[in-house]
Amino acid sequence: MKPDAQPSKDTATEGNTPTVADLGEFKDPSGNPTYLIDKDGKVDWYTWRGYKKYMANCMQCHGPDGLGSSFAPNLTNELQALSYYDFAGIVVSGQKNKWNTSGNSVMPAWGDDPNVMCSMDAIYTYLRARADGVVGRGEPKRIANNKPAQEAEYKCLGF
Ligand code: HEC
């Protein structure tokens, strides 16, 4: 396991209920995006948004809740070993022949798709929370809306 693939449960959940001012994008000590979960199990905006974007762009191959399908790997397992850097590289450029040596089923490259690129950190954050076992199946409840984050996404999308 690479050093920066370590779960960040401690940093992400330490302390009490966050204030609205805390609801930005969270980074672990290595500077990688991570989640924040409050004592009631509610998640920060990015983790919630990542779920939505995962469902829209990744679920059809990787299955509901990241659990995999017959032709694409279980990402809640894969993220145990993939660093953020590895993840980003694969999502931007695609991947083939690691799982499906026949080449029949490949991971598309998303580097030109703003729907994925504008939310890549959010998708990673959601999957990291799933891989760490701190977010269950289905849509996580979010702590609060995050207007600045939403506006940043829309701006990235060119709205
Ligand atoms: C058209 C189907 C399809 C879609 C849609 C898709 N993937 Fe994949 N993905 C695959 C396949 C197939 C593989 C395995 C490729 C291989 O054999 O190397 C894969 C591999 C991966 C891997 C590497 C896993 C590993 O450890 O080798 C990551 C990470 C990943 N996908 C993330 C995503 C994310 C995030 C999305 C949504 C933005 C997404 N995928 C959408 C089919 C898909």
List its salient traits.
single chain, 159 residues, mainly alpha, Cytochrome Bc1 Complex, Chain D, domain 2, two-stranded antiparallel sheet, 2 strands, 3% strand, globular, binds heme C, iron, Cyt_c-like_dom_sf, heme, metal-binding, electron transfer activity
Describe the structure.
The structure is a single chain. The chain is mostly helical. The protein has a single domain (26-157), classed as Cytochrome Bc1 Complex, Chain D, domain 2. The chain is 40% helix and 3% strand. It has helices at residues 9-13, 45-57, 59-62, 75-78, 84-93, 114-117, 120-131, 147-157, and strands at 26-27, 33-34. Strands 1-2 form a two-stranded antiparallel ribbon. A hairpin with a 5-residue loop joins strand 1 (26-27) and strand 2 (33-34). Helix 2 crosses helix 7 (120-131). 31% of the residues are buried. Mean pLDDT is 86; it is low at 1-17.
The CATH architecture classification is Orthogonal Bundle
> Based on the structure, what is the oligomeric state of the protein chains?
single chain
Number of domains: 1
* Major β-sheet profile: 2 strands, antiparallel
Topology:
Blueprint: H1 9-13, E1 26-27, E2 33-34, H2 45-57, H3 59-62, H4 75-78, H5 84-93, H6 114-117, H7 120-131, H8 147-157
Antiparallel strand pairs: 1-2
Helix pairs in contact: 2-7
Bound molecules: heme C.
GO molecular function: electron transfer activity; heme binding; metal ion binding
Organism: Jiella flava
Protein name: C-type cytochrome
